[in-house]
Structure formats: C-alpha cells, structure tokens
Specification:
Blueprint: H1 2-7, H2 19-27, H3 32-37, H4 41-51, H5 55-68
Length: about 80
C-alpha cells in the first residue's frame, strides 16, 4: 500500500485493518478464510463486492482507497 501511495505523491499513514489492506492481502495469496475471519461482516460484504469487479476496476478501487487515505485515523501512525 505504501508504494502505491508514494507513487501518487501521498505519504501513507501505514495503518492496517482497512479494506484496501484486506484486498491486497488476498491478492498476495493469503487464505480467504483467514482474511474473512479477521474482518467484521459488513466490511467483508463490501470487500466481496470489490472482488466481484473486473481486475482492472479492482486495482483502480485499490489505488483510490490508498491515495484517499480514508483508512487513516488522525493522530495514529
């Protein structure tokens, strides 16, 4: 995630637990069951919608999420 953020000129807050982090974890090959069990059901439902998109749309979504830094909590880094 940090590499994608830095390429876009954004300093990543490096906080874990976001939907983008879960997506990249799955893309990296971590077992789906493991990722699902670590997530809240509503978050998993959102991620499922993303995973059903064509791969190009998934990567566009990931880039928007990381660059937007919506997963960052102010004051935590």
């Amino acid at each position: 995630m940090s590499g994608t953020a830095e390429l876009a000129g954004v300093h990543d807050c490096r906080q874990q637990g976001s939907l983008a982090a879960a997506w990249v974890t799955l893309v990296a090959g971590v077992d789906e069951q493991t990722v699902r069990e670590a997530m809240m059901p509503p978050d998993w439902a959102v991620l499922q919608k993303v995973l059903n998109l064509p791969i190009e749309e998934q990567t566009d979504w990931f880039t928007r999420e990381v660059v937007g830094q919506k997963h960052c909590v102010k004051g935590v880094s």
